[in-house]
Amino acid sequence: MIEANYKYAREMARKILKQHKILDIPTNLQVICEKLGLEYVELDDSNELDGAVLELDGTRVAMLNKAKPFVRARFTLAHELGHIFLNHDKREFYDAEAARDYGEDLPENQKPAKEKEADAFASELLIPMEQLKKFQGDLKSPDKLAGFFQVSKPAMAIAIANFFSTSKTFR
Ligand SMILES: [Zn+2]
């Protein structure tokens, strides 16, 4: 199995935030999509996906489904953007999304590398480590932080764990 390149995935997310001067949290996905040249639409249909990036007549359209839990839809859309900006093969990621729906409960170590990379990209885009640093006093309150960053509690818990393991490396 190919190893996921988390470092590259995170760097790409940081690069996009920096390049487009997106310095505030919660990360505004609509602004990011528009700056990246994607059309942004919101859907309100509980039968549809949480979020997606589609190609219609050569135009990339980013969709966020308001009928789904907001934090989940945000993560899904950020994950899809990850596939695009990490240059994952198109067919591969469209196919993988179906797999992702079924394989959602797959343990982390059984997810394909590209899925893990897209998750790392989404995590850094929505919870930039530089921003998380400013909330060091709140790291024991993941619920509160999840609210600030508009992410799910599990997504925040992962980011906090990652923050601690990363800062250990630099100690
Ligand atoms: Zn995916």
Enumerate how many helices there are, as a single number: 8
Summing up helix and strand content along with how strands pair, one would put the structural category as mainly alpha
> How far do the termini sit from each other?
31 Å
State the major sheet.
3 strands, mixed
- Across the major sheet, the strand order is 1-3-2
What portion of residues belong to β-strands? 5-15%
Q: C-alpha Rg, in Å?
A: 15 Å
Query: Low-confidence segments, ≥5 residues, pLDDT <50?
Result: none
Ligands: zinc ion
Helix-strand pattern, N to C? Answer: HHEEEHHHHHH
How many E-type strands? 3
Written overview of the protein:
- Strand 2 and strand 3 form a beta hairpin.
- This protein has one domain (6-170).
- Helix 1 packs parallel to helix 5.
- It has helices at residues 6-19, 29-35, 70-85, 90-102, 113-126, 129-132, 142-149, 153-170, and strands at residues 39-43, 51-56, 59-65.
- It has 171 residues and is mainly alpha-helical.
- It contains 8 helices and 3 strands.
- It has a 3-stranded mixed β-sheet with strand order 1-3-2.
- Zinc ion (ZN) binds next to helix 3, helix 4 and helix 5.
What are the main properties of this structure?
single chain, 171 residues, mainly alpha, 3-stranded mixed beta sheet, binds zinc ion
